[in-house]
Structure formats: C-alpha cells, structure tokens
Amino acid sequence: MKRNKIKYDRWLRMLVLSFALLTGGGMVAWGQKTEISLVLSENHDKVHSEVKTIYVDPDKPRKLSLPELNINTRSGSDVSYNWFVHWYVKGKGTIRHEVITVTSDQAQARGGYLGIKTDGNNSYVTKDYFAKVKETDGLIWSNRLKEDNVVTGGLGIDASTITYELPNVYTGNDIVYCDVSIYKDGKKISNNNYQEPTLLKRYIYEIKTAEECISQINGNPDPDSIYFPKGSEYINFSMPYAPDNYFWKEGDLTHQGAKFQYRIV
Questions:
Q1: Which of 17, 144, 174, 246 has its CA 20 to 30 A from that of 236?
Q2: Greatest Cα pair distance in the chain
Q3: pLDDT tens digits for 188-224?
Q4: Structure pTM?
C-alpha cells in the first residue's frame, strides 16, 4: 500500500510539473494573448486620419466598430479584407474584443458580402484572435500574424469591433486609435518582433462622457439646415454619427439612441 502511494505521488508530481512547463515555460497560458513588439513604420504619424467624438456611459462599455471591415468576409484565396488592424488607447480607459453577429442580409444591405459563414444561420459570429502589443498595450491582428502562427486564426472581420470602458474616475482626454493597412510591406524582424506595414488610415475616437452629450441636447442644440431643389421628390441626407452616440435625459432617466426617426412638417 505504501509503495503504491509513493508511485502515485511521483506520478502526480510529474503531471503538475508537465502542466507548469506547458503554461509557464515559454508557452502562452490558457486565456492569455500572445504579446508582440511592433516597430513603427516611417509614415506612422503622417497617415490620413478620421476623427470622431464618441460619448460613453460610465456604467456601460461602448462598442467601436470599423464599418467596412465588419460586413465583409471573402472565401478562398481572397484576403482583401484581412487587414492589418491595431487598436490602442492613450489614456486610462480599457479596450477588449467584442463579439458581433452579422447576417448575409445585413452585410448586403450595407454593400458588403459574407463569403465565409460560421454557422447554419447564414451569418458570421466573430471570435477573439487578437494578440497584444507590448509598446501600446493594444490589440492587433493581421493576416501575416496568422500565417506566422502568432495568432490562431481569424479574418479581418474578427478584428473589426472592440468595446471601450471608462476608468472609475474619468478626468477626460482619452483617445482610442485604430490603425489599419491593406499593404503587405510589414515584416517579421525576429521572434515576435514585427515591422508595422505602411498605414492606410487611422481612426481616432475622442472620448467624452455621455453627460457632455446630454448637456448639448437638453440645452440649445444648433439646428441643421438641409438644402434641396424645389419640387424634388427625394431628399438625401446623412447623420454624422450612429444613433448610439446620442444621449438625452427625461427626468432622472438617461436614454441612449437606438434608431433614427424623422417626420415631415
């Protein structure tokens, strides 16, 4: 009996040691992301930028999404939407991957196409394939990282959407950046060290609290005039932001937009 216990104890210690080597001896533990170092490209600070003001409820994470990337998957060897995507924050807030479900009908209505789907419902459900960037503490995905097995898979659509969360005490001035590229000139320098490709565009989200939006809407908002030819049967116009970027109050209750309504008077 004693001899069996000794054998069991040795076997258990070997099992524990093997698990420790797998999770701590150079491999990524379950639930953790691979971390890379990113060497910035020459045009990193000269790229075309699009700036938006984003209002965030302190009690609710805010979804941020790239409108062209979140409606496209292509099949076969077509990797035209497998972009380089790098999300990062300058400030105290935090970001994480956000799961979205896109149907073929939704993609087509917005000019996209789902060549690859993930289930029998004619839709694509995204997964978190991000790696982490040492220099920015940001989230990164690219087709090159997938080819080099730095990330375990995914498509560009999987990197299209994140959520941003305000810190407990927000003093202002947080900015979320998303750098994207369709170019292939980025390269692997050494193990988990990568050269950033020539950037195509930078999305800049200036973060403000929902209360700042409420004070504008509940105050004296500026009217917006739309001019169109007399007698025209059609009027084309667009809103500067999606409905969820508008907040207002009725009594003590705060509302966030879900859809637009219009009327003819």
A1: 246
A2: 99
A3: 999 899 999 999 999 999 999 999 999 887 766 667 7
A4: 0.83
User: Is residue 221 a part of any domain in this protein?
Assistant: no
In total, how many domains does the chain have? Answer: 1
b/e 166-190 (16+ beta carbons within 10 angstroms → b): beeebeeebebbbbbbbeeebeeee
Please give the order of strands across the beta sheet that includes 138-141: 49-56, 201-209, 175-181, 84-90, 138-141, 131-133, 35-39, 193-195, 188-190
Residue 112 to residue 213: CA distance in whole angstroms: 31
Residue 225 maps to a domain: no
Q: Alpha helices of the chain — where are they, by DSSP H?
A: 2-24, 104-109, 143-147, 210-217
Residue 23 in domain? no
Domain that holds residue 93: 32-209
Strand, coil or helix: what is 195? strand
Contact 197, 145 (CB under 8 A): no
φ, ψ for residue 172, nearest 5 deg: 95, 170
Comparing CA positions, the residue from 39, 96, 94, 102 lying closest to residue 67 is: 102
